[in-house]
Amino acid sequence: MLIKDNDKTQISENGRSRMLTEADVTDESVYRRRRKLLKGMGFIGASGLLWANGIGGISRAKAASFKTTAINVVKSNADSVSDTLTPESKVISHNNFYEFGAQKHEPAENAQDFKVDPWSLTVSGEVEKPFTLDYQQLFTLFDLEERIYRLRCVEAWSMVVPWLGFELGKLIKRAQPTSKAKYVAFKTLYDPDQMPGQSSRFLGGGIEYPYVEGLRIDEAMNPLSLLSVGLYGKTLPPQNGAPIRLVVPWKYGFKSIKSIVEITLTEKRPPTTWNMLAPNEYGFFANVNPEVDHPRWSQASERRITSGGLFTRNRIKTQMFNGYAEQVANLYRGMDLTKQY
Ligand SMILES: Nc1nc2c(c(=O)[nH]1)N[C@H]1C(S)=C(S)[C@@H](COP(=O)(O)O)O[C@H]1N2
Ligand SMILES: [Mo]
Fold first, then answer.
1. Which residue, of 26, 158, 221, 301, has the fewest CB within 10 Å?
2. Which residues are found with C-beta within 5 Å of the ion, ligand 2?
3. Where are the domains of the chain?
4. Cα 252 to ligand 2 centroid, rounded to whole Å
5. Ligand 1: nearest atom to the Cα of 258
6. 43 CA distance to ligand 1 middle (Å)
7. Quick one: which H or E segment has residue 59?
8. Domain spanning 22-332 has what CATH number?
9. DSSP SS3 for 243
10. pLDDT tens digits, 282-297
11. Span 91-104, mean pLDDT?
12. C-beta separation of 10 from 112 below 8 A
């Protein structure tokens, strides 16, 4: 991956160097306060989120033309972490989504006209009951919950994001996997007319499209594996993978594939985009591991993107499985994680 802006991204957002603005910090503190309040009231519901949209929506509106809408959340999940949230303005402007450009600021600039409705997500392969969901069903099939997760990119930066979504396992169970289903393969939309990176090796970073990813079935069924349809109380903006993307918080960010159109249960391990491009650098498992360095840089620490200003370093130690060892270490018992990276 492009690593050249590893430590400079926070001073160069949207292609311009700039100081931290008030919106960067207001976003998060308002959000936190609202969340506490709602929790105190015993629920997180539609009216609260509409109220949040009225406040938090301001900073998004000035940069984005894509319309996001408030989402009804049924519950807040116990797996949420209490780390300081990355401000919404940064979550939606510092992205990896090579279909819209390989520079961090490009997806937010190039994806605003992306059409997400109608959408079609198919679940098939080694299942008894294949099915296809339309745009509306992505939001109504299951109760949506909020999960605050760490997101650790293999490039050694990280964020903390309040996602909205449902467990991947619920979707898989609905399709009734056969006994041959050992892996789950994911595919991003292929539409070069809408995704300029797919027809330009320069913009698209030289990777093969469509972007594909995969998990072992037990990883996919782990309750932490989330299909996200929103963040910060609203539907996903396109740069973050609208209308539906995967979030696997104990793995490097490239596993968290965006704008998914196909989920296929398979017997054999499916090919995955970054592994195909550079197998010595990116493994199939891609578990966050501070002890296994990338061939070109250390993974022992990371730059946490917070509301820090121009000269804030925010360098923190990377945790095994990104801090989720308690929930997932048992999935890898007996494996040599230096070889199965
Ligand atoms: N289809 C697709 N999915 C993708 C990527 C991509 O380029 N294309 N980039 C991945 C990488 S490297 C990261 S770190 C995360 C970033 O998610 P975010 O932009 O929402 O923070 O998305 C992942 N999903
Ligand atoms: Mo990444």
1. 301
2. 96, 153, 253-254
3. 22-332
4. 6
5. 3
6. 31
7. helix 46-63
8. 3.90.420.10
9. coil
10. 999 999 999 999 999 9
11. 97
12. no
